[in-house]
Amino acid sequence: MIHIPSQIHGFQFVKVLAGKKEAFEPGAPRYDHTDPELIKHLETNGNYGVSGDEQHVIVDSDSDELAVIIRSQLPRTFTVTSATKQKPHFYFKCRWTRGDIALTDWTTDSPKAGNIGTVRRNGYVVGPFSQVDGRQYLIDDLSPVAEIAEEKLSDVLVPWIAKKAQIIDQELWKGQGLDFPITKISSIRGGLQVHPVHGSKSNSKNLSVEAEKNLWYCFACCAGGDSLQLLAVMNKIIGCWEAGPGALRAEKFKEAKRLAIELGHVKDSEAKFVEKQKGGDKETQGGARGQAAELIRLALEAGPELFHDQRRAPYVKWRSSPPRILALHCSEIKAKLAGLLWDKRQTVPGSEALNSALNVLEHKALNGSRVKLHTRICWDKDAIWLDLADEEGRAVKITSRGWSIEEPPTLFRRYGHQQPIIIPTPGGDPWRLMNHANVSKADQLLVMTQVGCLFIPEYPHPVWNHYGSQGSAKSTLHKMVKTMIDPSVVGLLTMPRDERELVQLLDHHYLCAFDNVTHLPGWAADAFCRATTGLGFSKRQLYTDDSDIIYQLMRPVGLNGINITARTPDLLDRSLLTEAPTIPDEKKLPESETWSRFNADLPSILGGFLDAAVKALQMPEPRLERNYRMADFVSWGFRMAQALAGKGEDFIASYANNVRAIAKEAVDADILGEPILTLLKENSDWDGAASQLLDDLRNRAEQLKISTRQKAWPKTADALGRRLRRLKEPLRHIGVSTEFGRTEHARTVTLRRGGKVLENVSAVSEASAGTGHADTNDASDTSSQSLNGYRCEVCGKPGTPLSRIGESGVRVFCKNHLSNYGGDL
User: Fold this and answer.
1) Those residues with Cβ within 8 angstroms of residue 270's Cβ, 6 or more apart along the chain or in another chain
2) Could you tell me how far CA 398 lies from the centroid of its own chain?
């Protein structure tokens, strides 16, 4: 027997044939979940459908992109998906007054490709645990059904909702004798059938034809009409999803009428119309083409800059005040073109003319200049630009000479979720962030340096793992940092289901902070490693089989959770670990008060970090005594710590401790870690065949009550070798060296305890060299820097570069003359 989950008991239900999608009762009557007839049907293993009503609605998504938008912009809710197709159904409690609506990708002319989902209030979707052709619909998210307002759902889905003209077609051809039996159309019969034009993705009967009423309805597109409209759909005069009031107008109506006469579906009394067409009606011939040509002319007269980005996606920059950069095929551009024609001739353009005009403009954009576009922050020449995303189109320009708010060049693409950054206060105090964040004193410099380095883009940032117990405000810290540098209506992100969705999120956000992550699948850990170091992702274009979109991304990533989420050695090696201590009950504040205080300080905090970024840009690049995995971060981190507090050496020491903690975490996280360390406690080193090492480790595991039957335990010497190679670096950091060899008969492994452990000492060499992005013209005393490193400006001995917030230039002093610097760092 199939059980209906309690989360959806408020919906209406339909009896569906076992193993099928079709309802078998005339009119598909609705039942309550307690109805005995429905229960009896389910006891016989029949399927069931779930329908919306006055209080409930279901979004049936057939597109990965649509699913990403819903998951990121709408509340988390009960979700069901097919076991093989992974196309989710999102359940909502919502007073939806608009009935069933097809969601359409307007950038394609293909009816089959155009439909990317449906909002179902009257129709139904297959219910969870039902089976169709051997595939079971499973629960993807057990959350309660979320309640949202109709306005909120409409705002998110509006780019895909068809805007139908409210003109009834039948009024246009009333009395013209165009009613004809719908079954005269080739391949059409009465009853349910597979749609003959766009088919069915699951081979289900998705077209209903009522021959006695001369009406039809497509369940996939939520559209229908009479016999003339179906004839137009069958001959691709209109798309199936377009059918309905207002679809057959002007040229499309005349073409459908002519075809009906030619096929003999209507009387010959309409032959006069055909003769007129053959005679060359200038108005008919020039309609759509003439409109398209005029739309192109009007658009080009407005003087837009047409270009394409690094992915060959077409864009337009309108020379408005302020200038706006928009994707060429977005709804705003269509509205802009329609408005130009209306202002000129008080005429509404048809969809065919609009699409034709956009195709020509796209051609011009693809043959125009190539402009690399970025999300939120980027380098351009010798300056960093931070997009404020405000109505004025402004950005913060950061150089070694200072920062200012200006109109940027063509640099940024914007997304609907982005919110404006608050206007910063010059000479602010970045350390006020620590007044609102719950961070241990030992980690404060690491956290401040990590946050400051976010203002230096386009180099590998570590994956920031911030962990702590419930109620330790770990999410709050990430929200505050996100609000400061990359605010979004989405806030913190939830882990997506697959890499396609993850790439979409990484592309649309600069700071990708994921909230309450309890488990990180292997594909996600690998993707974060690649995103951190800036490798590429390839994604198939929507509805095409042979075209790829290449994403070249480098993003700072944040993860928070109760435990350390990163567990694989590769990801841990690229991580920064900070812990949120437990907050005593008496020190906890209401969330509203926490955010009120933070928002009051935010302009000063942001201004202070911008001042620190300026200082960091002024400093020469230090040469490190020791190579780290995240060498670029260590280099910028030293300069940022100097700029924030004159504590570059302390940052290096803290980071070295963090590296050791990460290495220990990587070893502990591996099933081989404890047996290896136990083995080396008994013997300071081990040398022998890999197969013998596997036996010895298995014996130690049994002593430690570790099951070697787990999938993670290596079963062969070859598998053991691969695992040890992944652990080689973490083991080295905690003093265990690993060497591999081969004899005539076997692979060999040598483990030695007592190797050099990374020491908690400064990693900045006295032989530092200064290049990077430093502007030596702004340094206060560059002559004090010798070719062999930083030199004290008092005695000439090796020294440390120092900088105070709000002060221009860099000073260099040795420890003996540090008092000469003075002031508050």
Assistant:
1) 176, 177, 178, 257, 261
2) 27
Cβ proximity of 156 and 90 under 8 Å: no
Q: Judge whether residue 454 has pLDDT over 90.
A: yes
> Hey, what are 318's tokens?
């309108």
Tokens 């913060």 sit at which residue? 396
Of the pLDDT bands very low, low, confident and very high (cuts 50, 70, 90), residue 49 is very high
Q: Do 18 and 130 contact (CB within 8 A), yes or no?
A: no
Neighbouring CB atoms inside 10 A of 383's CB total: 21
Averaged pLDDT, 90-107: 81
Task: Please tell me the distance from the alpha carbon of residue 770 to that of residue 596, in angstroms, as a whole number.
Answer: 43
Q: What is the CA radius of gyration of the chain?
A: 33
Tokens for 799? 């020294």
Question: Which tokens belong to 633?
Answer: 């971060």
Joined together, the tokens standing for residue 205 give: 């009967």
Distance CA 254, CA 287 (A): 12
Cβ-based neighbours of 553, under 8 Å, separated by 6 or more = 503, 506, 507, 531, 534, 536, 537
Ramachandran angles phi, psi of 390, nearest 5°: -95, 180
Query: Both tokens of residue 661?
Result: 């903690």
Q: Tell me, what's the pLDDT at 113?
A: 46
Q: Can you tell me the mean pLDDT for 463-474?
A: 92
Find the length of the chain. 825
User: pTM, whole model, 2 decimals?
Assistant: 0.60
> How many Å apart are CA 812 and CA 800, to the nearest integer?
5
CB burial readout 509-530, b (16+ within 10 A) else e:
bbbbbbbebeebeeebbebbbb
Q: Do the beta carbons of residue 80 and residue 60 sit within 8 Å?
A: no
Cβ-Cβ contacts under 8 Å for 605 (sequence gap 6 or more): 428, 429, 430, 432, 433, 484
Task: Report the pLDDT averaged over residues 196-222.
Answer: 79
Per-residue pLDDT tens digits for 388-397: 999 888 999 9
The DSSP code for 799 is -
Which of 452, 418, 448 has the alpha carbon at shortest distance from 435? 448
Q: Indicate if the alpha-carbon torsion angle 265, 270, 271, 275 is positive or negative.
A: negative
Q: What is the mean pLDDT of residues 133-150?
A: 88
Question: Model confidence over 327-351: pLDDT tens digits?
Answer: 898 878 888 898 888 888 888 888 7
- Report the distance separating Cα 786 and Cα 494, nearest Å: 50
pLDDT higher than 70, residue 741: yes
